[in-house]
Amino acid sequence: MRIIVCIKQVPDTNEVKINQETGTLIRKGVPSIMNPDDKNALEEALKIKDKYSAEVVILTMGPLQAKDVLKEALSMGADKAVLITDRKFGGSDTWATATIIAAAIEKIGNYDIIFCGRQAIDGDTAQVGPQIAEFLNLPQITYIKALEIKEEKLEVKRYTENGDYIYEVKMPVVLTAIKELNEPRYPTINGIIENFGDMGEEKIITFEFADLILDESQIGLKGSPTNVFKSFVPVKSKISEIIEGNTTQEKVDYLIEKLSEIKLI
Description:
Mean pLDDT: 90
Number of domains: 1
Strand order of the largest sheet: 11-10-9-12-8-1-6-7-13
C-alpha cells in the first residue's frame, strides 16, 4: 500500500503581522511551520503504516526552504519526500496549485490513499484537496474524523455541522483530515538526527516544471482564475456612553431605548 500525503509550509499565524499600507502579510521574521491539519493527515498515514506496513510518501509545493517541513515529516516516520518547486509555479492560486500537485501525484503513481489537511491556515480555502481529487478523477471524502481499513475498502466517519456520516469507499481515494482525527506524534530524536542532515537531503526528490506533464497556461499567476482586488485589516472601533438619570428606572428606560434604536432588542 502506498499513501501520499500533501503538506504545506505556512507562516505561524500566532506571529503573523499585516502591512497596514499594502494589506499583505509581513513574512520577514515570521517562523514557518507545517500546516496543522496536514499534520493530522500525516499522522493518520503513519498509523496505517504502523499497522499495515504501508509506504508513506509526502509532497509539498514551495521554495527550497519548504524542505524543512519535509524533513520534519521524515523525522516523524515518512519514507520518501517530494518537493515541487519552480519559478513558473509562483503566484498559483488553489486551482493552479492543485493542477501542479495532481501532475506530481500522477508521476509518483501506484497510490492507494491521498491525504490532505482540511485547509491551510494561511488561506483557509479548503479547496486544494477536493480539486486534486477532481483533476485525478478520484472519489473524495472531506472532513474525516475517523478511519478504518476493511480489506480493500475504507470505512470513514465524516464530520458535518449537522452530525457525523459514515461512508464506505474503495481505494484509491482522496481524504482530507481535521484535528479531531488524531493527535500527531512528535519527531523522534533519531529521526531528527538522521533527516536534518545529509541523509535527509538524499531522501528528498525534486520535481520541476520540466519533470511534470503540465500546460504552462494553467499554472502560475497567468493560470490562476482567482483575482484578489483588495485586502485589508478590519478596523475595530468602540463608542462609550455613560448612562445618566435621576433614578434606576430612568437609566433602564434610556438603555432599552438605545438598544432598540440599534436593533439589539
